[in-house]
Design a protein that fits this description.
Elements lengths: L8 H17 L1 E3 H7 L7 H13 L3 E3 L6 H4 L7 H4 L19 E2 L4 E2 L11 H4 L6 H10 L6 H23 L2 H15 L5 H5 L10 H27 L19 H20 L3 H32 L3 H13 L2 H10 L4 H25 L3 H27 L2 H8 L9 H18 L8 H20 L7 H21 L5 H8 L3 H11 L8 E2 L5 E2 L12 H18 L4 H11 L9 H8 L3 H15 L2 H4 L7
Parallel strand pairs: 1-2
Antiparallel strand pairs: 3-4, 5-6
Length: 625
Amino acid sequence: MAKESSTNPSVKKGISQLVDLGKERGYVTYDDIHRMVPQDDVLPEDLKTAFSILSDNDIEIVEGFGEEGAEAADVDVDADAFFGDEDDWEVDAAEVPEVRKAVETDETETPVPPVPKLQVPEREYASDSTDPVRMYLQEMGSVPLLSREEEVAIAKEIESGLHEVRDCVYGMPLAARYVIGLAERLRAGEIEPRDIFADDAEEEKSSVERDEKRLKQFLKDVATLKRLMKAYEANLPRRFAPPKDRKVRRKPTAREQRFAEAQQKVREHLISMNLGERHVNAIVAKLKEAHELMRQHRRVIRRYERRTKRDAKQILEIVRHMAQGDANAKRKAAGNLRMSVAAAEKMAADIRQARRAISEIEKSIGLSYEDLDYFLVKIRHGEERAQRGKKQLIEANLRLVVSIAKRYTNRGLGFLDLIQEGNIGLMRAVDKFEYQRGYKFSTYATWWIRQSVSRAIADQARTIRIPVHMIETINKVLRTSRYLVQQLGREPTPEEIAEQMEMPADKIRKVLKIVKEPVSLETPIGDDEESALGDFVEDRQSVSPADAAVALSLEEQTRKVLATLTPREEQILRMRFGIGEKTDYTLEEVGQKFAVTRERIRQIEAKALRKLRNPQRARGLESFG
């Protein structure tokens, strides 16, 4: 029996329960797997382990529902997963185009099953033929479903194409230098181990113990690779001149033989390291970049060759003799090249620089331009084979995405967005599908599609993004709340939910606060919709109309009362109390302005205040007291 890769107890328990159920019934459905193995905690490796354990115990995986799994499941993986519910979907078979073509492989052609009937929800997309959704669904329905044998044939074609690419890439020293560079960047802290081992963003969750083990083995392999590269570079050819005919080769020299042996050892070691497809693609990108640089330098040389109607070697020879002769000889040689002496010297310098650049690039990648061009043709051929197979597998399963996506509607994302996210999950499933395990592709792809759609809803459905782990907590709180509503007949309090879930009440309150959705201030209020919600929200920074009216009235009454004093007394009171001034002034400052002592200012101030206490003057200010 295969060992479980996960260290999560809930995943181990789920796999154990799944095996028990399979032994009891003789089979399990995908929904049994999804229901018993926690989706949020499971890793892709755990899913593979579950299938391996079931296979070791002769437990068949079927796509229909078992009696126990039918009620608990929320996604179908049987025929309805491809066609939808018969009551909701209908399109005449006459609208579906003819089958495009049979599944192609290198050796054989497998007959294609009849085209199934695609059903489109008339109630939602019953518009004319220009409706993009309807057109997408109709085109999707023109691609036939694949049998298990056809899926295996396509998967083998993809595998063959990827192997063709890897065989070419691993035979180049650039691949070895790339891997050594990864190790150096890792030691410098520029990248993390997951940047080396994880082939996509979905593999973020990984076992610490497994990562440490893989990292230790990776560094050990890199040390071996460095030793092999020393032998390779010691026997590197002095120049890269490809043979005229690849089929007819002269007997290699001892140095060339040692170089070939070292190159083969490097290639075999890189294959044993089993780099992810992401790293292979990065190496291919570097090879294409080197090829383009050499092509640009060769274009410079060819331009001069066409201009002078001589090859580069002859041009350099003429310029070399021209440099050794006198002025007349130089002019004559330059005339043969149909240019001035300065232009000829510049041309020779450009050719030498281009040849040096090409030579440096050839040494860095370990291949001549012609050899690199030859291998890139093989790489492109392998890439096209793999992409063609992936395209077939994806197009044949697009309706599975639609069936799963329609189960997640009304959760904050539009139907088309759900389909788009599901398609991303489908493409990831194609990249990771292993036909050797014996299950159908649709069974494996369903997990990735659901995972992609669920993550998209968690990340994009809300205006304020909530982390995925908090989404799970929110769902548990809401389920508990609904359960308590049924038990109590009323909305439960946070304390009651906390007691049921055995969690702190403060955390429950925090979760319930997070659940609240943002509300737009432009939301219409009332039947006439003339008012918006923002009109009824208090602005605590603005002055209320009542306070503004009182302040205005106080200012007016103060001005009238002060006007009953002498101008000098009014000015002194205004300065002392800051009425109509930027600030209040001290006795000393007021005295300096009026050129009197501070004592005199105090006396004038006291006299003015006594006047204001007169009942006739004070009557206008009593209401503000």
